[in-house]
Amino acid sequence: MGESFEPFKILIVDDNTAIHEDFRKVLIPKNHPQAIEELGNLLFEKKTQSPKKPIQFSLDSAHQGQEAFSLFQNAIKNHTPYALAFIDIRMPPGWDGVKTIQQLWEVDPDLQIVICTASSQYTWDEIIRKLGQTHNLLLLKKPFDAAEARQLAYALVEKWSLARQVKELREKEQPKPKQKG
Fold first, then answer.
1. What is the pLDDT of residues 29-69, one digit of tens each?
2. DSSP characters over 10-74
3. What's the number of domains the chain is made of?
């Protein structure tokens, strides 16, 4: 059905390079246990019924909001959209996280976003006042827990993918306008 977006593209937007590395370690582990098991099964010609293929991620990094917006526009133009963005709330000297999210959602309101913050620059109520109440926005406090970040990524890319499938089905079901003829 439709286009396949795996590995799911995730955009990390943070002015701290170490955070980008943390997300890479959490979301793209070097020695994924299932990959090792699959290799062993191939080597020893062992037939197993493995569970559903694990979700794979592709990560891109931006250190400022404007840089993130440029990457995002290119991804849309190339039909390789981002499913999810983890965005820091404070990124001096450029756009803050709220401004970055506003710009991204103007292009694609379906993008799933996790605000990552250690700062109390904005309260949750202020963020909602600026961005609106939406089911596409979650909060992750820094320092973040690896399991929480991984769980958010898995759940949100799955949600994004299902929403795209539903949208595609609805578009197919809409009657086509009759041509005069």
1. 876 555 545 555 556 666 555 556 678 999 999 999 999 99
2. EEEE-S-HHHHHHHHHHHS-TT-HHHHHHHHHHHTT------SPPP-EEEEEESSHHHHHHHHHH
3. 1
33 domain-assigned: no
Range of the domain at 150: 8-26+55-172
CA separation (Å) from 64 to 46, 100, 101? 48, 9, 12
> Would you state the structure tokens that stand for residue 33, as one six-digit string?
């246990």
Instruction: Specify if 130 maps to a domain.
Output: yes
Look up the CATH number of the domain holding residue 159: 3.40.50.2300
Q: What is the pLDDT of residues 115-151, one digit of tens each?
A: 998 877 788 899 999 999 999 999 999 889 999 999 9
Cβ neighbours, 10 Å, residue 85:
26
Nearest to 140 by CA among 159, 113, 158: 113
Reduced to 3 states (helix: H, G, I; strand: E, B; else coil), residue 107 is: helix
